[in-house]
Amino acid sequence: MNITSLLRPAALFGLMAACLPGGPARAQDAPPVLQPPDRSSGQECVMSNARSRAARLAASLQDGFAVQYWGTTYDADTLSRQPHGLLILEITRIGAPYSDTGREVFFTPEEIAKINKNGARPVLGYLNVTEIEHYRDYWIDQMGGIDVPPPAVLPDWYGPTTVHKEHLSTYWTDAWHKILLERTDRLMQTGIDGLFLDDVLHYYSHAMDKTLAWPEGKTPDGPADAPGMAREMMRLVGLIADRARQWNCDAYVVVNNGVFIGRDAMGGGDPQGKAAFSDYLEAIDAIMVENVSAPTTHVHTTEALQEDFRRNGVSVLSLDIATQFPDHKPEALRDLIAEKATQAGFYPYVAADNVFNQVYPPIRSPLRWPGGPE
Length: 374
Description:
Elements: H1 12-19, H2 50-61, E1 65-68, H3 76-80, E2 86-89, E3 92-94, E4 105-106, H4 109-115, E5 123-128, H5 137-143, E6 158-161, E7 167-169, H6 174-188, E8 194-198, H7 202-208, H8 226-247, E9 252-256, H9 261-266, H10 271-283, E10 286-290, H11 299-309, E11 315-321, H12 330-344, E12 347-351
Parallel strand pairs: 1-2, 2-5, 5-8, 8-9, 9-10, 10-11, 11-12
Antiparallel strand pairs: 3-4, 6-7
Helix pairs in contact: 6-8, 7-8, 8-10
């Protein structure tokens, strides 16, 4: 999911700061990150499990969901008034290039409490698990700034670029795991109800994309094939889910794409891959798929979503972009996608474009986990 628009300010204040003489201020020291609460006794988490999370999530999704990452009205008051049952948000309210400190400005716990209605409506925070985002605080901390050349000795997590100029991490390394777990801590301590993990599918890019451009002198070091890449991705998602649930036992984890990750992990029936996928299904609560309602979507995609995920208690969210359906008027398109999604057992959302700078009306659903429509 493309969120390069995050480089634009989340509010007009960010634009003003960027335009001041000399640009944004030099990045200050990183804010302190709290440690997850000690839940070693397990008493607070006794009622938390995948089945109970699935039931609660499905109840929220009946009122629809929405995705927003930035915008001139991207503030707690406006978001709190949205009627959707679940919101997927960029918790960075102002991007590092546009803030007056040179660092990301997050929504505060008080603002998150307003948006999620004191826990009554789940709010999930965006976290990219495979792409290196140069406008994040972790890049600033590791590299010393936003627009700086890479060091002579590259860190272990520094990976290749795609033909679309996406900078991929070596997501299987301990160094990258450390970065993401620390970011999980920062996100969860705002009081969000879970995480939206983007670009899970890049395990397949690493395995199959022969055009990946690795830095000169850096030899790829990692899993040798698609099953190994898939298993390492599922392991990473599990680590993040475990960390998030140290903060909140009931934290939701939604992954974006990766429909065939279980089948890729199993290869020709590898029991190791089967066990890894079983753990993965316990770690996640939903999978989102973009433009699954488009006529070009292969029937096997829908089958895999139903057989591998939904039948195992994992909700399926479908996000369709209206520009992919030029022959349909907006209201007719919403009705069409709502009908197709209900028939497939998915929870739908329709956005006008892929800019994600505003919220569109919810599409309410009759679905109840784990069955179909009432």
